[in-house]
Specification:
With 115 residues, the chain is mainly α. The chain is built from 3 helices and 2 strands, in the order ααββα. Strands 1-2 form a two-stranded antiparallel sheet. A hairpin with a 2-residue loop joins strand 1 and strand 2. The protein is rod-shaped, with a radius of gyration of 25 Å. Bound molecules: zinc ion. Zinc ion binds next to helix 3.
Length: 115
């Protein structure tokens, strides 16, 4: 699977090197005790994960709701009737599921939220 580039709205790292210039190898000097370093890393990692997770989720949520609204009003190119395409057969009509509408529903379901 080809990697997808991060979109323009992806949040920037809130801890840029320009503000926090310390290099990683300096960490062992500042916190020489290995057990303390591990405990400190875990605690800070947990705190930073919460901040990053909330920040990213807010950005994703805003974009997803826009995509969802666009998808909800998108017009089916197959001119189907409520997701069905009628076909004339020898004796009357047959219904075929509209692929476009089916896939739109799958996408909306994947995005979650209200219908
Ligand atoms: Zn359709």
């Amino acid at each position: 699977m080809k990697a997808i580039e991060k979109p323009k709205w992806w949040p920037d790292n809130p801890y840029p090197k320009s503000v926090f210039p310390m290099e990683r190898d300096k960490y062992s000097e500042v916190v020489p005790d290995e057990k303390t370093r591990t405990a400190l890393s875990g605690m800070l990692g947990r705190e930073f994960w919460e901040i990053a997770s909330d920040t990213i989720w807010e950005a994703v949520e805003a974009e997803l709701s826009q995509v969802r609204e666009l998808l909800k009003v998108a017009k089916c190119p197959n001119s189907c009737i409520d997701g069905s395409i009628p076909h004339r057969i020898v004796r009357g009509w047959e219904q075929e599921q509209c692929q476009w509408c089916y896939e739109r529903k799958q996408a909306l379901d994947l995005m979650g939220g209200k219908k």
